[in-house]
Amino acid sequence: MRSLHIDGDSALHRLPAGVKLATLSVISLALFMIGNSAFLAGAALVGLAGHTLLRISAAEIWRRMRPFALIVVVVALFTAVFNGTTEGLIALFRLAALALFASLVTATTTTGDFIDVITRAAMPLERLGILKARDVGLSIGLVIRFVPEILSRYEVIRDAHYARGLKPRPVSLIVPLIITTLRSADEIAAAIDARGIRRQK
Amino acid sequence: MATRDLVLSALFAAIIVALGLVPPIMLGFIPVPITAQSLGVMLAGVVLGARRGTISVLLVLVLAAIGLPVLSGGRGGLAVFMAPTTGYLIGWVFAVITTGYLSQLLVSHSQAGFVQTVNFFVAALFGGVIVLYVCGISYLALITGLGFSKAFMGSLAFIPGDVLKAVIAALAGRAVMVGYPLLPKRA
Amino acid sequence: MDIHFEKVEVRFEGRTVIHPLDLALNGRRVGIIGLNGSGKTTLARMINGLVKPSAGRVTVNGFDTVERQDEARGQSGFIFQNPQNQIILPLLREDIALGLKSRKLPKQEVTAAVEAILDRFGIGHLGDRRAHELSGGELQLAALASVLVTEPKILVMDEPTNQLDLKNRNLVERTIHTLPEDVIVISHDLDLVAGLDRVLLVHEGRIAADGEPGEVIGQYRAMHEGKD
C-alpha cells in the first residue's frame, strides 16, 4: 500500500505537520462561512496552484483529484438544479477548494509525521487513562502490515471455491476470511507481549 | 486495553481495508456489483461488538486521513474528509457503535440460529443503514444547502444495496459467532 | 540459562495440561519433543510468562515470571511457530526497532542496534522490504533478528523448521548451532533435536524422559513405533 505522500523539499513539505493540519481546519472553516462564488473560485485556484509545489505533472494532479471530481460535480449540479445556478457555483468552488487544500496537506506530509502528530495529540487522552498514546502508531503499523496478508488469504479462499467447482459467494468468502484472520490474533498478541513492546517504562 | 483486543481491532481494520480493495462482489440475484467496504463496517459491529468494532473503524479513518489509499476505489487523504459524502464516513463510527451495541444486546448464545441471524440483521440494518444514512444525508444537506428532502432523494438509490449488505452481515456474523465467537458477553 | 519450574501445574478449562512437575534447565541447548497436544508448547510459553502456572512457580535467571514479569521476559526471547505472525510492522527495519522503543534509547543507538542485528543474520538487504514479500526462510531469520535485538540471554523457539524447505531448514539448523545465546527448541524435527545437548520428552502433560538426545529420541520412537 503506497501512501499518497509525495517526496519533496518545498516550503509546504518543511512546515510541521501540526501547523499544516491547524491551518487546514481554519481554511476549511473560512470556506464554509464565505458564500461568495468569486472568492471561492479564487480559493480553488490557489489550491490548484499550490500543487505546482509538488513538481508533478498535470496528469498526475488530475489522477489524484479524479475520485473527488465526479462527486463534487454531481453535487454541484444537483444544487444548481434545485437551488439555482449561484448556489450551484458556490457548492462547486467550495467543494473543489476544500478537496484541493486537503490534498496539498496529504501530499506534503509523511505517514510517520502524521503518526507523531496523532501520538502527541493522544497524550492528554493517555493522562486521562483512556488509551496509551504509543498504541496509536502500533495499531496503524499493524493494519498496514496485515492488509496484504489478508488480500492473499482472500485469493486463496476464492481459489479454493473454484477448485471445488463452487461459485464464490459473499458469505462463503467473508466468513472463512474473518475466522482465519482473527484466529491469528492470539499469536500476534503473544508476539507483541513476548517482545515487551507495550511495556510501560 | 488488552493486547489481544488491540490486535483484533487492527486486524479487523485491515479486513475493512482489504474489502475495499477486492473487486466488487456480484450478488446472484441483483445484477449490480457492490463494494464491500461498508459491509466491513457492519461486520466489525456484529463480530467484534461496539468497543473493538469502533476502534477498528476509527483506525481505518485515521489511515485514510493520514494519506493512505485505504477507502474503496483507492481513495484516501484529508480530501475525503472535506467532500460532500464525508457524512457517510463519519457515519461509519456511529453505525459501528450502534450495530455493535445492538448485537451485544440482542444476540446471545442460547438463542436458536435463526433468531440470532434475525437479531444480527436488525443490528446491522439499524446501525449500518438507518444511522449511517441519517449521518450521511444530514451532512450532505448541511454542507451543500440542499435541504434534507433533496439530499434524501439523492441517496435513495443506494439504500437497497445497503439493506442487502445488512443481510450478508447478519448471515456472516452468525456464522463467525459459531466458528470463532468473539462478541463480548452481555453485561 | 537458569530456569526452574517448582511444583508447576497448569490447568485450562477444567483440564490438566501440565501435571505437577519440578524441572531445572541449565544447559546450553535443550530440545523438547512430544506429540501434538502433549503440553510442550505450554511448557515453553511459561518461560516467557505467556502462560502462567495455575500452581507453583517458574523462575528465569532468578526472576519469577509472574511477580517480576517484565524482568523475566527480558531474559528470554520467543520465536513462534508462524514467523509471519510475529513481524508486526510493515517494514522489517521498523519492526526490529520496535522492540527497542520501550527502552527510550537515542535514535542513533536504535539505528546502530538494528543494523548490527541485520548484519549478524546477513539480511541487511531485507531491511526495507515489506514483511509479506519475504520467503519462509527470510521470515524466520527476520523473526530471529526482531527478537534478538533486545539481547535476551535465552531464546525459545517453537517449531522453527516447521514450514521450511530443506535449504531453509538447514540454514535455521546452522543458525541454532552458532547462536551464542542459550536455546530451547520445541520441534518434531528429530534430526534437528539430535544435535542439541539435552532433550526432554513430554507426554500427556508429564516429562516422560529427560537426558541425552540419542536415548530420549530412541524412547520417543519406541513409544510410537508400530502404533496408531
Give the strand content of chain A.
under 5%
Query: How far apart lie the N and C ends of chain B?
Result: 18 Å
Radius of gyration of chain B: 16 Å
Which descriptor suits the 3D outline of chain A? extended
Order of helices and strands of chain B: HEEHHHHH
SSE class of chain B: mainly alpha
Strand-residue fraction of chain B?
Answer: under 5%
Question: How would you describe the overall organization of this protein?
Answer:
Chain A: Belongs to the CbiQ family. Chain A: It is found in: Membrane. Chain A: This is Biotin transport system permease protein. Chain A: InterPro entries: ABC/ECF_trnsptr_transmembrane, ECF_transporter_component. Chain A: It is a multi-pass membrane protein. Chain B: This is Biotin transporter. The complex is a heterotrimer of chains A (201), B (187) and C (228). Chain A has 201 residues and is mostly helical. In chain A, 78% of the residues lie in helices and 0% in strands. Chain A has 2 domains: 99 residues, no CATH class; 63 residues, no CATH class. In chain A, 38% of the residues are buried. Chain B has 187 residues and is mainly alpha-helical. Chain B has one domain: Arp2/3 complex 21 kDa subunit ARPC3 (Orthogonal Bundle), CATH 1.10.1760. Chain B has 6 helices and 2 strands. In chain B, strands 1-2 form a two-stranded antiparallel ribbon. In chain B, helix 1 crosses helix 2, helix 4 crosses helix 5 and helix 4 packs antiparallel against helix 6. The longest helix of chain C is centred in the middle third of the chain and has 14 residues. Chain C has a domain of 155 residues: P-loop containing nucleotide triphosphate hydrolases (Rossmann fold, 3-Layer(aba) Sandwich), CATH 3.40.50. In chain C, 36% of the residues lie in helices and 26% in strands. In chain C, helix 3 packs across helix 4 and helix 5 packs parallel to helix 6. The model of chain C has no long low-confidence stretch (mean pLDDT 90). Chain C has 8 helices and 10 strands. With 228 residues, chain C is α/β, with parallel strands linked by helices. Chains in contact: A-B, A-C.
What features would you highlight for this structure?
heterotrimer, A: 201 residues, mainly alpha, 9 helices, 78% helix, extended, B: 187 residues, Arp2/3 complex 21 kDa subunit ARPC3, two-stranded antiparallel ribbon, 6 helices, transmembrane helix (chain B), membrane (chain B), biotin transmembrane transporter activity (chain B)
